[in-house]
Amino acid sequence: MPTDIVLDVARAADPAKYQAASKRLSELSGPSNAAEFANTFNALTASSRSHVPSDPFALKTALRNDTTLSGADRKDAAYQQFEAFVLQSFIESMMPEESESVFGKGTAGGIWKSMMAEQIGAQIAKAGGIGIAKHVLGARSASEQFVQSNPTTSTGGATRSL
C-alpha cells in the first residue's frame, strides 16, 4: 500500500518538539518590517560594491570577470580556443570506441564522451597546450608586421593598397 512520506513524518513527529521548534523560529525571526528589510538590503548591496568579497569562490569569480572584462588576453583567447578545439579532436579520436560501461550507451554516451574530450582539451590548452596557439599567433604577428612594413603590394603590374 503506497504511503505519503510527508504525512508519515508529520504523524511521527513529537508535538512538544514541534511546538518548541516553532517557538524558537518565531523568536529568531523577530518582527517583520518591510522598510527595515529594504534599508538593510540596500546597505548591504551598496557596501558589497566597494569591498572585496570574503568568499574565496566569489573573489575568484570577481577577479576572473575583471580580467575578462578588461580585455587582457582577449586576442590570445581565440587562439587558445582554437587549440582547445584541435586538442578535443585529437583526444576524442584517442578515446576507446567500445566504452559503453564508462560513457553510457547510444547518443547520450556519445555526447558525454564528446563533452569529456572538450573539457580535457580546454584544460590542456589553458595550461599552455602543445604550442598550436603560440605558433598560429606567431604566424599572425609576422603577417601583420609584413603588411605594416609593406603597405602596397604589386600584382601583375597593378598596385593595390592593403
Question: What can you see in these coordinates?
Answer:
- The chain has helices at residues 5-12, 15-29, 34-50, 56-70, 74-94, 100-103, 106-126, 132-149, and strands at residues 152-155, 158-161.
- With 162 residues, the protein is mainly alpha-helical.
- Strands 1-2 form a two-stranded antiparallel ribbon.
- A hairpin with a 2-residue loop joins strand 1 (152-155) and strand 2 (158-161).
- The longest helix has 21 residues, at 74-94.
- The termini are far apart.
- The model has no long low-confidence stretch (mean pLDDT 75).
Secondary structure: elements and pairs:
Blueprint: H1 5-12, H2 15-29, H3 34-50, H4 56-70, H5 74-94, H6 100-103, H7 106-126, H8 132-149, E1 152-155, E2 158-161
Antiparallel strand pairs: 1-2
Helix pairs in contact: 5-7, 5-8
Key terms:
single chain; 162 residues; mainly alpha; two-stranded antiparallel ribbon; 8 helices; 73% helix; flat
Which stretches of 5+ consecutive residues score pLDDT under 50? none
SS class: mainly alpha
Multimerization state: single chain
How far is the N terminus from the C terminus?
81 Å
Give the strand order, joined by hyphens, for the main sheet: 1-2
DSSP summary, beta strand count: 2
* Mean pLDDT metric: 75
**Rounded Rg:** 30 Å
Q: In this structure, how is the largest beta sheet organized?
A: 2 strands, antiparallel
The DSSP helix count reads 8
> Can you tell me the overall shape?
flat
Helical content band: over 70%
SSE succession? HHHHHHHHEE
Strand content: under 5%
